[in-house]
Design a protein that fits this description.
There is one protein chain. The chain contains five helices and 13 strands. It has 331 residues and is α+β, with helices and mostly antiparallel strands. The protein has a single domain (9-317), classed as L-amino peptidase D-ALA esterase/amidase (4-Layer Sandwich). The strands form three sheets. Strands 1, 2, 3, 4, 7, 10, 11, 12 and 13 form a nine-stranded mixed β-sheet that branches. A two-stranded antiparallel sheet has the order 5-6. A two-stranded antiparallel sheet has the order 8-9. The two termini are 26 Å apart.
Length: 331
């Protein structure tokens, strides 16, 4: 497998991503959308999730396609971001048709970034506006690190961030991942600069430090965990034609990427959630082997994306943790 031309989830043809953030708030929103509805499902492995409209993504439920997916900071307040996206889609005439009405379908997931040093003393929720802004900003290219839903993210001992990566499989399908890394666990090994995801790195995409010699060291949280204060939220996507059930299996497999990039993962204090998307533009060549390889590729992309999000984080005077570059050097 090789990385796509952008090494972003938007290497999947037809997908667009937009970010919006507020520096004083130290929080933001990321939106994934496309010109046409797409198949989506999701899977949760963390013990403290926060989400909207994820039940309809179960394979047995009626609506097959969605219009956008939202990743947001702000804990439960961040779910308002989906309302901003829904309004923008409605204005564009998008949505599921129900008795003559168009109802945009916009599932969302949130992470906890309330205690990161930003000003959270708002009156009217800022997330509705940030959601609409992120939707309007959607395009092929977007910023990583301290951007969008990753603006206020943290991981154990370091600033987190928004990451993305892609692969093109041997069968010719494109797979991509997008993640807001805000985990309780460590993404680096012990006290070293080496990422747990290092064995999967492509072309020095997160510094080229390579694997750590401390491969047996457990990555334990550097501070006492507080319930509800973390969560890694992600989207994996492909142009392969998948059913909603097959998309869910890809989401399940992609969670391995979080576990490969972060130790420990899926704790009771994380709300780890992965959406899976299929644009359906490229048929499966092998209905047995292809779905397995797509899940494998999605997990590898997600591991790489988590490391890239942390690697690209930039500092702010109010940060509670240093960036990877500040702690270990930019090279």
């Amino acid at each position: 497998m090789r990385s796509g031309p952008r090494n972003l989830i938007t290497d999947v043809p037809g997908l667009r991503v937009g970010n919006a953030q507020h520096g004083g708030l130290k929080s933001g929103v990321t939106v994934l959308t496309a010109d046409a509805p797409f198949v989506a499902s999701c899977h949760v492995m963390g013990g403290a999730p926060g989400s909207r409209e994820t039940d309809l993504l179960a394979p047995e439920n009626s609506v097959e396609d969605v219009d956008a997916l939202v990743l947001s900071g702000g804990s439960a307040f961040g779910l308002d971001a989906a309302s901003g996206v829904t309004a923008a889609l409605r204005a564009a005439g998008r949505g599921f048709e129900a008795r003559g009405f168009r109802v945009p379908i916009v599932p969302a997931a949130i992470l906890f970034d309330l205690a990161n040093g930003g000003d959270k003393d708002w009156g009217k929720s800022p997330y509705t506006m940030l959601g609409a802004e992120a939707f309007e900003n959607a395009g092929d290219d977007f910023a990583l690190g301290t951007a969008g839903a990753g603006t206020g993210a943290t991981v154990s001992g370091l600033k987190g961030g928004l990451g993305s990566a892609s692969f093109i499989t041997e069968a010719g399908h494109t797979v991509g991942a997008l993640v807001a890394a805000n985990a309780l666990g460590q993404v680096t090994v012990g006290q070293s600069r080496h990422f747990w995801a290092a064995p999967f790195e492509q072309d020095d995409e997160f510094g080229g430090a390579g694997p750590s010699a401390e491969t047996g060291v457990l990555g334990l949280p550097t501070a006492k965990p507080e319930p509800g204060s973390n969560t890694t939220i992600a989207i994996v996507a492909t142009d392969a034609a998948l059913s909603k059930a097959q998309a869910k299996r890809m989401a399940v497999a992609a969670h391995d990427g979080i576990a490969r990039a972060c130790v420990p993962a899926h704790t009771p204090w994380d709300g780890d959630l992965v959406f899976a998307v299929s644009t359906g533009s490229r048929p499966l060549t092998d209905p047995v082997l292809d779905p397995a390889m797509l899940g494998h590729a999605a997990a590898l992309c997600l591991a790489r994306a988590m490391a890239r999000g942390v690697f690209h984080a930039t500092p702010d005077p109010k940060d509670t943790f240093p960036t990877w570059a500040d702690r270990f050097g930019s090279s």
